[in-house]
Specification:
Elements: E1 5-7, H1 17-22, H2 35-38, E2 43-55, E3 58-69, E4 80-84, E5 88-98, E6 104-108, E7 114-117, E8 123-125, E9 129-133, E10 142-152, E11 160-162, E12 169-180, E13 186-191, E14 198-202, E15 205-215, H3 227-230, E16 233-238, E17 240-243, E18 246-249, H4 253-264, H5 272-282, H6 287-301, E19 303-304, E20 306-307, H7 319-325, E21 327-328, H8 330-343, E22 349-353, E23 373-380, E24 383-387, E25 407-412, E26 415-420, E27 430-439, E28 445-454, H9 457-464, H10 469-479, E29 485-493, E30 501-510, E31 515-517, E32 520-524, E33 545-547, E34 551-560, E35 565-569, E36 574-577, E37 581-590, E38 593-602, E39 605-607, H11 612-625, E40 629-634
Parallel strand pairs: 1-11, 2-12, 8-20, 19-21, 27-34
Antiparallel strand pairs: 2-3, 3-10, 4-9, 5-6, 5-10, 7-9, 11-16, 12-15, 13-16, 14-15, 17-18, 22-23, 22-25, 23-24, 25-26, 27-28, 28-30, 29-30, 31-32, 32-40, 33-39, 34-38, 35-40, 36-37, 37-38
Helix pairs in contact: 6-8, 7-8
Length: 636
C-alpha cells in the first residue's frame, strides 16, 4: 500500500525542425544545455512528457523521459527500473543511449530487459517484480532517453506529480497531461507551482495539463522541511475507485475510512481456545496491565513479515491465521492485537499513517492515498495509548520517529477521523550521560560512560543491543564521537520494560585525550557530544528552518586529575538562550575533581529563512563553547 510518486521531467528543445531533419541521429547535445542548469546539478532532466489516461477503473501512464547525466552522482538516472505486480503492468520499454555530442550509441529493448523478482528478504507473500535496463555507461557526460507504458487496474493507484525527483537535479522542461473519462473524475491540489495548470472539458471527458520550464537544481540543507514541501507538486486523487470488488471514494476522510473499515469486518475472529486462554491469563489484571500483557503476548508470539495480499495489500490477514502461523505484516499484527484486546473488553482502533522520519505532513484538507503503515490506538479513560505492533522490543505506548508527532487517519466505527500521534515532550526525548574520566600523567584517559537513551533515541540503541558482538562494536566505534579510543567493555540494560528507556554502559581507554605541553595538560571538557560541524545552512536560504521534535542531551562528567597536578585555570561557563535552543556548560571544582555539566536543547519550531544567520550564530557559539579546555599543571 505504499504510494508511489511520479517525478516529472521534460525537455526544452533547442533544435529546430530543420536541424532535426538534417541530422536525425544527433539529439540532446550536452553543449545545448544552458550553463545555469548545469550549476550544482548531477543530472539535467531534458525532457519529461507524462500522459495519464484515466478510464473507469484503470490508469494508463505513458512516459517519455530524457536525462543528461553530468557525473557519477547521477548514475541512477541512466538505469531503467520499474516495479509491477498483479495490479499493474509495464510495457513498451525502450532505453536509448547518447554520447555528449548527442550521437546515438545504442538502444535497449526486448531481450535487453531483465525481468526479475522484487521480493524482499522479509516477505513471504509478495508478487512484486521489476523490469530493469542498466547500460553501465560511465563516459560522462552522456544522455539516456527512456520510454515506457505502465497500466494500473485501479484508480486507487493514481500517483502524485512530483516535478523534481531529487536534490541536485535541474529541469529544462516538464509536463503532465491527464485525460479522464466522464465516469472517472479526479481531485487535484497544486503546491509550489510557479504557474497553474489548465483544464478543458469536452464530450470525451476532462483534460488537465501542466508544463514548467528551466528550473534550476537546488541542494539539500540541514533542518529542512520534507522534500515534497519544497518542490512544485500536484497531488492527485480519484473521486471514486474500485479495488477487487470493493468500492470507495475520497470525497472525505470519513468516507475513505468507511471503505477501509469494510476491509476489517470479520477479520478479528479468534478460535474459542485462544479466547479462553487470554481471558484466563488476564482475569486478575487492571486495564493497563491487560494492555501491557496482551502487547507483550503479541510481541513474543509473532514476527513481522511483509504480506502483499488481501484487497490490493490493504486487507489484513485474519486474526485467527496470525494466531496460528505466528507472523504478519503491520496490518495483520495490528489487527491481531486489536482482536486480543477485544477479548478482554478493551476497544481499540486501527490508525493508518505515513511513516518515516522525513515524510511530509498529511494533507488534512485533501483526502488521498497517502499511507504506508498501520498502528493501533487504545483510548483508556483520559489517556491515549499507541501500539507499534511490528516491534518485538518497544514498550507499550512507544512510537519512535517513524510514526511520532504527525497527523494520521483513525478508523472509527463511523469512518475515518484525523488524529495526531504522540509527540515527545522535552522531558522525554533525552540522551543523558554520567561519566567518570581518570586523567593519566601522559594525557591518556580511562572513561566509564553510563548513558540513558529515552524517547525517540530509545529505538536505535534498543535495536542495536540485539546485534552480534562484532556488529555492536562496529556501531560503537562509528558513533561515539571520541578520537583514538579503545573499547574495553560494553553492556545494555532496560531496567523497566514498560518505559522507553535503555542504558548503555561502556568502558574505554582514550589515547592522548589531553594534549601535553611542558608541565601542562590541556583537557577538552565536552567528551562525546560536542558540536563539531555547523549545520549546512546558507545565509541566503529560501526554505524554512524546521526543528521537528524536542532534542536534549545532558552530560555530567567527573574528571579526576593526577595527584601531582593542580588546576591552573578555571574554565569559562557558558549559557546561550534562544527561542529555538538552549545551551549551558559549567564547571564545579573540588580538590582533584572537576565536575563538568553540559546541557543542549532544541525546541520544536519553524523558523523563517531570514532567521538563518541567527540559527548559524547559535550553533557557532555552541561549537566554540564545546572546545573549552581544563588547564592543569604539574605541582612544583
Amino acid at each position: 500500500m505504499i504510494k508511489s510518486k511520479i517525478f516529472a521531467i521534460t525537455l526544452l528543445l533547442f533544435c529546430t525542425i530543420n536541424i532535426v531533419i538534417a541530422s536525425a541521429e544527433q539529439k540532446y547535445k550536452i553543449s545545448d544545455i544552458h550553463s545555469a542548469l548545469k550549476e550544482n546539478a548531477k543530472v539535467v532532466i531534458r525532457k519529461s512528457d507524462i500522459t495519464i489516461n484515466v478510464n473507469l477503473n484503470n490508469i494508463v501512464e505513458e512516459y517519455n523521459l530524457v536525462f543528461s547525466i553530468l557525473n557519477k552522482n547521477g548514475d541512477i538516472y541512466s538505469i531503467f527500473n520499474e516495479y509491477y505486480d498483479k495490479f499493474s503492468t509495464v510495457n513498451n520499454i525502450r532505453l536509448t543511449l547518447y554520447d555528449s555530442d548527442g550521437n546515438k550509441l545504442k538502444s535497449y529493448a526486448g531481450t535487453d530487459i531483465i525481468d526479475m523478482s522484487a521480493i524482499s528478504n522479509y516477505s513471504l507473500y509478495e508478487d512484486n517484480r521489476i523490469k530493469l535496463i542498466n547500460p553501465k555507461y560511465k563516459n560522462y557526460p552522456f544522455t539516456v532517453e527512456i520510454n515506457y507504458t505502465k497500466k494500473y487496474k485501479s484508480l486507487l493507484f493514481l500517483n502524485d506529480w512530483m516535478v523534481y525527483p531529487d536534490y541536485d537535479c535541474s529541469i529544462e522542461s516538464t509536463s503532465l497531461v491527464i485525460n479522464t473519462a466522464p465516469n472517472s473524475e479526479i481531485n487535484f491540489l497544486e503546491k509550489n507551482l510557479p504557474k497553474k495548470g489548465s483544464i478543458l472539458k469536452d464530450k470525451e471527458g476532462t483534460h488537465y495539463s501542466w508544463k514548467l520550464e528551466n528550473l534550476k537544481a537546488f541542494a539539500e540543507e540541514d533542518f529542512e522541511q520534507a522534500f515534497e514541501e519544497l518542490i512544485p507538486i500536484v497531488y492527485l486523487s480519484p473521486k471514486k475507485f474500485e479495488l477487487e470488488n470493493t468500492i470507495g471514494d475520497f470525497d472525505s476522510w470519513l468516507n475513505f475510512g468507511k471503505w477501509y473499515a469494510s476491509l476489517l469486518k470479520g477479520r478479528d475472529l479468534l478460535l474459542p481456545e485462544t479466547t479462553t486462554k487470554i481471558k484466563e491469563l488476564t482475569k486478575d489484571l487492571t486495564i493497563y496491565e491487560k494492555i501491557n500483557f496482551i502487547y507483550k503476548y503479541m510481541q513474543n508470539k509473532t514476527r513481522y513479515v511483509s504480506i502483499q495480499i488481501g484487497i490490493g495489500g490493504w486487507q489484513p490477514l485474519e486474526a485467527s491465521t496470525v494466531d496460528r502461523l505466528g507472523y504478519g505484516d503491520c496490518k495483520a499484527l495490528t489487527n491481531y492485537t486489536s482482536a486480543l484486546l477485544k477479548i478482554v473488553g478493551i476497544k481499540s482502533y486501527h490508525v493508518i499513517v505515513k511513516a518515516g522520519d522525513n515524510e511530509p505532513p498529511l494533507l488534512t484538507d485533501f483526502p488521498s492515498n497517502s499511507f504506508n503503515h498501520v498502528i493501533l490506538m487504545v483510548p483508556v479513560n483520559n489517556d491515549t495509548i499507541f501500539l507499534e505492533c511490528t516491534s518485538h522490543y518497544s514498550p507499550v505506548g512507544h512510537l519512535g520517529d517513524f510514526t511520532d508527532n504527525r497527523y494520521a487517519l483513525m478508523i472509527s466505527d463511523s469512518g475515518g477521523v484525523i488524529i495526531k500521534t504522540k509527540a515527545y515532550n522535552q522531558d522525554e526525548n533525552i540522551i543523558s550521560s554520567n561519566t567518570s574520566v581518570n586523567i593519566l600523567n601522559n594525557g591518556n584517559c580511562i572513561a566509564n560512560m553510563k548513558t540513558i537513551f529515552s524517547g525517540t533515541y530509545f529505538d536505535d540503541i534498543n535495536y542495536i543491543s540485539n546485534y552480534t558482538n562484532d556488529d555492536i562494536k562496529e556501531y560503537l566505534y562509528e558513533t561515539i564521537n571520541i578520537p583514538d579510543y579503545t573499547l574495553n567493555s560494553y553492556s545494555f540494560k532496560q531496567s523497566d520494560s514498560t518505559k522507553s528507556l535503555i542504558e548503555q554502559d561502556i568502558n574505554i581507554n582514550i589515547n592522548n585525550y589531553a594534549s601535553k605541553t611542558g608541565n601542562y595538560l590541556f583537557v577538552p571538557l565536552s567528551l562525546s557530544n560536542r558540536i563539531v560541524e555547523i549545520p549546512k545552512i546558507k545565509e541566503t536560504r529560501k526554505s524554512n528552518i524546521v526543528i521537528k521534535r524536542y532534542k536534549t542531551t545532558i552530560d555530567t562528567i567527573f574528571y579526576s586529575i593526577p595527584e601531582n597536578y593542580i588546576i591552573e585555570k578555571k574554565p569559562t561557563n557558558y549559557e546561550f538562550i534562544t527561542d529555538f535552543g538552549y545551551y549551558q556548560s559549567k564547571c564545579i571544582i573540588s580538590d582533584s575533581t572537576v565536575m563538568y555539566i553540559r546541557k543542549f536543547t532544541l525546541t520544536p519550531t519553524i523558523l523563517p529563512p531570514n532567521d538563518a544567520i541567527k540559527f548559524i550564530d547559535f550553533f557557532t557559539k555552541v561549537s566554540k563553547a564545546d572546545m573549552e579546555k581544563l588547564t592543569i599543571k604539574v605541582k612544583l
